[in-house]
UniProtKB/TrEMBL annotation:
PROSITE patterns per UniProt: ZF_FPG_2 (PS51066)
FPG-type domain residues: 305-339
Family that this chain belongs to: Belongs to the FPG family.
Enzyme kind, highest EC tier: lyase
Cofactor: Zn(2+)
Protein name as catalogued: DNA-(apurinic or apyrimidinic site) lyase
Gene Ontology molecular function, alphabetical: class I DNA-(apurinic or apyrimidinic site) endonuclease activity; damaged DNA binding; oxidized pyrimidine nucleobase lesion DNA N-glycosylase activity; zinc ion binding
Keyword Transferase: no
Example of a GO biological process term: base-excision repair
Length: 339
């Protein structure tokens, strides 16, 4: 499942490709036919992300746009028709059209066909929560696939295409999402009310809200960081490495972690996740702990401090990194310097 930084990045891509344009919407699979009919002919606004949820407003073509031509509305605006998407484990976006030529940055790679150039990610997942589709230019583009963006040569609908959107400059297709639905503004606010603060948004009062929510829990701190009702967006990588960066043991009861340490953790999530939206690559190991060259057999050390480094020495204290299951998810930590 993509972590929150990827959803914010997806929102930027969708806004760049479709913002301000009227879209033609359809559901080749048929499961979202009624929702697609509601979007058809509406103008795309600026997409919002909150944790792992995407909220995308669509408005009538008569609605006034901002100076850049893209309608900007507040989350939950009752005048908008809201598309709510949660990719879950299997959701994927694919994009095509001349507009994708202007998209750059880490995570974008070129492959001439849909099944070529696919690589396994470090955690064993398959690339592809997002694909950019265009004819491959000579030499291609460089970049790591943490954001799961690919550039391919051809895009066609499939029986699993839940939603297809077409605008003047791009086509987007969505397959396999856990949630793809039309919501009212009130329903959008209802979803957000069940979520914790998002470190990438980092709105006023969010840090204290996170601290208070975490300290009310008696479950392990490592479980709290994955609880989207406490903090929205972090997944397994940020959980592992941001706890390591702040020296907090994931096994410590959440209500036994001090307020000051939680404030430090929040600030670190803000730093790491916000930075990774721009780069498209999760890199959580501090530069001062990253060896040069990277030891053979330890490629994870180029980006992570403890994530997926079971049985290898901690770069801070030398203790051996451990792994266990916590609430059904793999947990990585250092028993020597996380307390």
């Amino acid at each position: 499942m993509p972590e929150g930084h990827a959803i914010h990045r997806h929102g930027r891509i969708l806004t760049a490709l479709f913002g301000g344009d009227a879209v033609a919407a359809s559901s080749p699979q048929g499961r979202f036919a009624e929702g697609a009919a509601l979007l058809d002919g509406l103008r795309a606004g600026r997409a919002h992300a909150w944790g792992k949820h995407l909220f995308w407003p669509f408005l009538s073509t008569s609605e006034q746009a901002a100076a850049d031509g893209i309608p900007t509305v507040e989350l939950g605006d009752p005048q908008a028709t809201w598309l709510h998407i949660h990719l879950g484990l299997y959701g994927k976006w694919a994009f095509a059209g001349p507009g994708v030529a202007g998209l750059h940055g880490a995570g974008i790679r070129v492959s001439p066909t849909e099944d070529s150039g696919m690589r396994k990610t470090i955690d064993g997942g398959q690339d592809g929560t997002t694909r950019l589709v265009e004819a491959a230019p000579a030499g291609g583009r460089d970049g790591l696939p943490e954001d799961n963006i690919q550039v391919l040569g051809e895009l066609a609908t499939t029986p699993t295409t839940r939603l297809r959107l077409a605008g003047p400059e791009a086509v987007a297709q969505l397959t396999g999402p856990a949630r793809c639905e039309i919501l009212s503004g009130e329903e959008v606010l209802g979803v957000i009310a069940r979520l914790g603060p998002d470190p990438i948004r980092n709105e006023e009062g969010d840090r204290q809200r996170f601290v208070a929510g975490a300290r009310r829990r008696k479950i392990p701190a490592g479980q709290v960081v994955m609880d989207q009702a406490v903090v929205a967006g972090p997944g397994n990588i940020y959980r592992a490495d941001c706890l390591w960066r702040t020296g907090i043991s994931p096994l410590r009861p959440a209500n036994k972690v001090s307020e000051s340490r939680y404030r430090e953790l929040w600030d670190d999530l803000v730093l790491c996740m916000g930075r990774d939206v721009d780069s498209g690559i999760i890199v959580t190991i501090p530069p001062e702990f990253q060896p040069d060259p990277i030891p053979e057999g330890d490629p994870e050390l180029s980006r992570f401090a403890v994530y997926h480094r079971t049985g290898r020495p901690c770069v801070r204290c030398g203790a051996i990194i451990r792994e266990e299951l916590m609430a059904g998810r793999r947990l990585f930590w250092c028993p020597g310097c996380q307390r």
